[in-house]
Amino acid sequence: MPPVMDFLIYCPAAPIADDQGDTPQLDEEHWAYMDAFADRMTARGPTLSPDRQRWTGSLHVVALPDAQAAQSFATNDPYHRAGLFAEHLIWRFDNLLGRTMWDFDRVGDDPLFLVLAEGNGHSPGSEKALPAPAERLIVWGTLRPLRGERPWGSVLALVAPDQDAVHRLITEEAALLGGDTRPQIHAWEFGGRR
After folding, report:
1. Cβ proximity of 59 and 43 under 8 Å
2. Given CA atoms 80, 81, 87, 91 in this order, what sign does their dihedral have?
3. What is the pLDDT of residues 70-99, one digit of tens each?
4. Which DSSP string do the residues of 74-109 spell out, in sequence order?
5. DSSP structure string for 11-28
6. What is the DSSP string of 14-70?
7. φ, ψ for residue 115, nearest 5 deg
8. What is the rounded CA–CA span in Å between residue 146 and residue 190?
């Protein structure tokens, strides 16, 4: 098997009419497609509107051979073929936790959030000193462009009481985002069959 690297693929939802949205059959096609990559996934799941009532995008962190394979992964997704995605944002992903979302031991029922932040990313070895809220971190890593080594920014997925708590946390724990700026905070949930 050729060497692989992790890619983070975030696909914001396209602005489509309500009658052109997904269906149970399309959901099943999407899940079946993702099942073929299950053993290579670090994380997956939908982003949601702040009230968690509307789907706003889709996140996948998956090990693939190269950037071309990552692009193919995104464009062959049945949701993409049905026109549900506005675009594909693809980065190489350095996993600072060294685990998958399925390794996360969730306690309580606080909601999940995804944070994407553009900036400096993390320096090598920063994962050796986990920030204070480590027990709340599901995914944490540096994002790099498909070509080049300079970081694009950071990503984290975490458990928090609400979006205000996420804002406070990333302000107080600057190490989480490596000094990155302009964070995008999304409501998020674990993906897979419902």
Report:
1. yes
2. positive
3. 999 999 999 999 999 999 999 999 999 999
4. HHTSHHHHTT-BS--EEEEEEESS-S-GGG----S-
5. EEBP---GGGS--HHHHH
6. P---GGGS--HHHHHHHHHHHHTTGGGEEEEEEEE-TTS-SEEEEEEEEEESSHHHH
7. -120, 125
8. 25
**At residue 34, does pLDDT exceed 90?**
yes
Do the Cβ atoms of 168 and 160 come closer than 8 Å? no
Give 165-179 pLDDT, tens digit per residue.
Answer: 999 888 887 777 876
Where in the chain is CATH 3.30.70.1060? 5-92
Return d(Cα 98, Cα 32) in angstroms, integer: 26
In CATH, the number for domain 5-92 is 3.30.70.1060
Asked if 144 contacts 96 with a C-beta cutoff of 8 angstroms, the reply is: no
Burial 45-67 (b: 16+ CB within 10 A, else e): bbbbeeeeeeeebbbbbbbbeeb
Give me the amino acid identity at 10: Y
Any idea which architecture 94-188 has in CATH?
Answer: 2-Layer Sandwich (3.30)
Terminal Cα-to-Cα distance of the chain (whole angstroms): 32
Give the model confidence (pLDDT) of 100-141 as tens digits: 999 998 878 999 999 998 876 654 445 455 665 778 899 999
Pairing of strands 41-48, 137-144: unpaired
Cα–Cα dist 56/71, whole Å: 20
